[in-house]
Design goal:
Elements: E1 5-9, H1 21-30, E2 34-38, H2 50-53, E3 57-61, E4 72-76, H3 78-83, E5 94-98, E6 101-104, H4 118-133, H5 136-155, E7 160-162, E8 172-177, H6 182-191, E9 197-199, H7 204-210, E10 215-219, H8 226-243
Parallel strand pairs: 1-2, 2-3
Antiparallel strand pairs: 3-4, 5-6, 7-8, 8-10, 9-10
Amino acid sequence: HPVAVIAVGHVSNAIGALNDVQGFVTLAQENDAYSVIDGAQAAPHMMVNVKELNADFYAVSAHKCCGPTGIGVLLGRRDLLERLPPWQGGGDMIDRVSFSGTTYNELPWKFEAGTPNIADTIGFATALDYLESIDFKGAVEHEHRVHSHLTEAMLSRDKVDVLGHPDHWVSVCSFNVKGAHPTDVGTLLDQLGIAVRTGHHCAMPTMEHFGLPGTARASVAFYNSIEEVDRFLDALDRVIGMLTD
């Protein structure tokens, strides 16, 4: 069967790898397939030019952009959205209904059936207004400095294994303490006032590829500071002392 859709994450939430999504978009175009880019982990942490990327669809999650959970945005090419049929029926996505046929509403209402998520829509819009009000380019540069400080310090620790390659990391640092389970690392860090995520990060095949049960994942954003990273590193060193010889 011919390939219909090529879907890829812009940045891996599991290991922070920045993928060559432009290459996948080109591959899709060469094979008459749709290109779908998951930008949830990229949009809050880097400058993304969606028009230049030229993907058919680009998805963004609100809660990664200082907004509420349970809502996001799908950017799509107008010509494709006009051709695609609705995926769900309900109020507002219908223009006219009769016994002889149905016509659908215009974009974007054609894909927004039923009562919308009003509260979270307002919350997401407010979050986007905030992000547009700040110097986002400066915020991204600040985050990059904080993240570089984190990764350089983690790579210097002999008892820490860091996944991925430094040249392709964005926003997260996925790691394991040698000889320790990531859940134990995360639990002890939590008791020291440090929040990290542990587990497979909804990416079991990735963890299977590395032969790991999971990792601990430290994440930074533009509102974090180098001082906060240093507090994390101090706590991690204490945890390493507890769990290793």
